[in-house]
Amino acid sequence: MLAHSIVKFESSQPSRYMIFLHGILGTRANWRGIARSFVKGRPDWGAILVDLPQHGDSLQQPPPHTLKTTAADVRALDQALSLPVRGAVGHSFGGKVALEWLAMQDGGAEIWLIDSSPGPKEEGSSVTAGVLMTLESLKKDWPSREAFVQSIVEAGQPEAIAQWLAMNLNRNDDGSHSFGPDLSAIRSLIEDYAKTDLWPVVESPSAGSTIHVVIGGRSSVFSRLDRARVEAVAGRDPGVFVHIIEDAGHWVHVDAAEELVALLTSAAGEQP
Asked: Which CATH architecture fits 127-185?
């Protein structure tokens, strides 16, 4: 079962739960602050923060490493928890996992895609693909967290990215640090993410579902054609919404946390 954390507002007894899914090379900790604000604003909901396969504390998941198997692992988790899971929030890779998860549901759900375009992409074009190439070019162990961060920065990545990646470090018995995720598995996930087309799920959502597409205005994830396509879907389907946060880049939940929380807790987020 995937590693996870459950977040509720104080002593509330949620009637439904939202799964929060991080992107490639993230962990469930990426969503902790947003999830706390979410359950405070919507105390009838609880939050389930998930470490996706090959990430965080879910490093031992066997191959194949694809979007579909990842979504199946998330589905197995929500079934094992026996909680009324009624929605999913996913950033980047996690957004496509949320769409695959939705396609596996018997009923409707509330889906939030955070700067996650549903269509196929050219391999190697994403920021994450560049980060993976950096990691693949470096050694596998470092004497300290600081040494790891310095190596990433010297390889050309911003310090903020280096600090974020350092959340994946594991401490070895000799006191050194190693990068937890299997990079070959991560590459398989990225490649499958790039080639998978989930526009059909967005353009024909299951009955009773809402799909909220949140786009970072400074992000390049959505091309001009992608944005026009999803806006056209929202124009004809009352269950699909597009929200553009102009000052945010790809990491919307970092660049515009307050604006994202406001969206997640708004009346627009309620089931139709």
From this structure: Orthogonal Bundle (1.10)
